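Section 4.2 – Deliverable D4.2 (structural model, holo form)

The reporting period included a commitment to supply a predicted holo structure for the target in complex with pyrrole-2-carboxylate. Inputs used:
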Amino acid sequence: MRESSHRYSALALVRHGISGRPWSPAWRSHDLRQRYDVVIIGGGVHGLATAYYLARNHGITDVAVLDKGYLGGGGSGRNTAILRSNYLTPEGVRFYDRSLELYAGLAAELNFNVMFSRRGHLTLAHNDASMRTMRWRAEVNKASGVESEVIDADEVKRLVPRMDVSADARFPILGALYHPPGGIVRHDAVVWGYARAADTLGVQLHQDTEVTGIDVANGRVTGVRTTRGDISAPVVLNATAGWSTLVADLAGVRLPVQTFPLQAAVTEPVRPFLHTVVVSGSLHVYVSQTARGELVFGASVDPFASYSTRGSLEFTEGLAGHVLQLMPSLSKLRLLRQWSGLCDMTPDFAPIMGHTDVEGFLVDVGWGTYGFKAGPVAGEAMADCIAHGRPPELIEPFTLDRFAAGRLVGEKGAAAVGH
Ligand code: PYC
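Output (structure tokens):
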């Protein structure tokens, strides 16, 4: 464990200001050791949260997190940071609600301001079929103790005055699923907070360390090969996104996953006016406003499987048209940046978590477009799974063997937009 002066506080700020003493790095670099109890592949929010909860909840600190690039450089740094638990299945609602609970306490727990903002989440319905799905989701949510209700177009207008709720809009708004606990968080702060806290508890974080092979003997994982040397380990967790099938292949494990790019964009900052997250499935768009005032937009995944993370003009044009159908007064706003991340889509839009047929080789993959919101609960559950050798009840529905057994979860109807 590191010295307590590592703690961030107002007093520490004053002390550093007066003394001019530099802050210690948020996490350290290490030589790669030849053995660890647990190796986690993927230094995004899932891998880092798992490492943190292994150390904090189970006292397992002989852990290495390996990332082929920099921490949070994959899906964790490319998502639109929307949090919600208004899913369609009871399994999903329970799971994502625990994540929201962890997110709400994360800044205090990690001693790191993750800028969690619970501001409400609206999923617009533009036709009768969507209204029916919203009612269905509201009932499932309420039955699990999660706040969600169907509201009408007037109430939508009250929450988002700039929204065009007129009957002559191209896609008139009939109502929405309103989910008050939903919100946003600062995604890179979440990554850095978990990384720093895991480091403080003794976990080793290794950036620029690509896994090139996974050793398996007699049906059991024995270690990994990396660009910085070989490691022996009795437990290896694949917590990657975008490359989950390629990493699983190294261990001889096949995953029912296809990878698609998902593009997003951000505008110049403007005065705060949008105080909820807004999603329109029919228009394939979601939007929220950051604390700095930028609007963050996202859409559906690109219509072809690919590992490309390039942006396209078609996306920007489509996105702009759809946003303006919802809020025509934004027509003068300028887009600053667009980017894309990779989504590992499963057949039932639910993740794959837990053990595989290779003993000691676990997966936390297949997050589709839901990965970032699940980071804390996935970390907590995977740490529990590793420590106790079996999946906790919360993630039993998501094990890999469900595909062979035909126990699919069916979470597609909770996707923010059509995919
Ligand atoms: O499921 O809320 C969601 C979402 C937003 C962006 C990507 N997925």
